[in-house]
Amino acid sequence: MDSIRITLLRHGRSHADDERVHEGRYDSPLTEVGLEQARRRLEDFRAKGFHFDCVVTSPLQRARTVAELMGEGLEAPVELDPDWMEVDNGLLVGLSFEEAAKRFPKPDLRGLYQRYHQGESVLDVHLRAARAVQALLHRGEGQYLVVAHGGILNAAMRSMLGIPPMPGDMGTFFAFADLGYAVLEYEPKRHRWWVLHFTMGFNTHV
């Protein structure tokens, strides 16, 4: 039976992680630790015999660097898709956690539809993730690697598995740490998703 296998991979440690700032669309590069994490995951994928027809990546450099490493190491073409960019956190981008807490206090409950601080709403992110997944499925039978970010990968997983978006920090989350990944397979004729594997990644903490 025709099937589409999608591997969702989060980038590694970035300079923004060390700077303790809100990342989002802040285009922070990987640290040396992040690069080494990517190399380790590439060797892991090689050892497991992973093959991809295409690597689709967020254009933000912390993801794109990992994607280019994977593409070269696994001999797969790399394509940029802005729908896989991280959640747009608006005015919070690049601010330290301390400064953001002073200037933009966190609401008691972040609504499903509100666009706080000129960023995306929870629903905006969910719809963008669903569109990105649909674009992959329209490619047809094959094996695809997506390199992106924790927020958008969570939204994509919820879209695939039929889990509705929820306000604020409520609902279901998937613990993608540095170079964490999930492997899913879709059967178009049955509209059936299989979750084949999930690895949290390096430097895991929940």
From TrEMBL:
Active site: 11 (tele-phosphohistidine intermediate), 86 (proton donor/acceptor)
SMART domains hit by this protein: PGAM
UniProt entry tagged with the keyword Transmembrane: no
Domain of life of the native organism: Bacteria
EC number: 3.1.3.3
Keywords assigned: Hydrolase
InterPro entries named among the record's database cross-references: His_Pase_superF_clade-1 (IPR013078), His_PPase_superfam (IPR029033), PGM_Phosphatase (IPR050275)
Annotated GO CC locations: cytoplasm
GO molecular function, one term: phosphatase activity
Main enzyme class: hydrolase
Binding site for substrate: 62
Cited Pfam families: His_Phos_1
Keyword Hydrolase: yes
Protein name: Phosphoserine phosphatase 1
Gene name of the encoded protein: pspA_2
